[in-house]
Amino acid sequence: MKLKYLFIFVLSIWILDVTAKPSEAHEPSELIIYDVWIMPASEGTANLYMTIENRGDHTVNLIDVITSFSASVEEYIDGERADFERFAFVTGETTSFDAAGNTILISEFGDALEDVDAIALTLVFDMGEDISYEATIGAIVAQTPLAKEHELIVYNSWGRFGFSGEGSVSGAYLVIENQGEADDRLIEIQSDAVAYVEIHESSMSGDMMSMSPVEAIDIPAKTIVDLSEESDYHLMLIDLQRDLMIDEVITMTLIFESGTEVRLAVPIMMQPNHATHPSGESHD
Ligand SMILES: [Cu+2]
After folding, report:
1. Ligand 1: distance of its center to the CA of 212 in Å?
2. pLDDT band at 111, cuts 50/70/90?
């Protein structure tokens, strides 16, 4: 990687860090959203599939789903049309949205879904105590279920905006959780938007922050491995094949030593999702 671009990248992280300080993330991180995919169906209507776990200590409500791909989003609870009167996620429970029970139906998008690999969505939650949480997530467009088993789940993913060109780099951040009984390792990452992806480890030597590629990262059984912005590890997107613009998505496949492959859509953002008060101020 050319030193100049590395410098620009590090500088941009530093500028964002001091100007757009992300608020404390404990509220949204208690809401785990994964296996998000969308199946295009006939006549401009598609089912949104996803799993949401509430690990917080109080019930939160989904009050809206927004996507620029659609003029209409309908919600059904146990087959009954509900339209976002409030969908409750009870503490400690895991809720799946599929085509049968709890359903989110996205329509009026014409045939655009057939032309893209993934779309960005924003889920709006009422977290209680006057706090709202707008979670921007990516959904893979697929004809078959994304995951057959849920031993490895990936959430809180986002990629930093960046421009393509020779020597271009950007960062991607996520959390990997191994819910299984067997240790695993993340050994390779592929993405449609970049030439290649490296796993980087950050370290401090004196006052200087530096980062270097590592071959793989251990994902032990029953462990959460943090590759978020604040952690020691991140994914480095190298040689951007196109500009990564805010509200776009890139697709990524995480390949593990066990042979498991996790496909996900990663939204491009300025900073990670975080909860806010109605005034627009960050919650902290
Ligand atoms: Cu890096």
Report:
1. 7
2. low
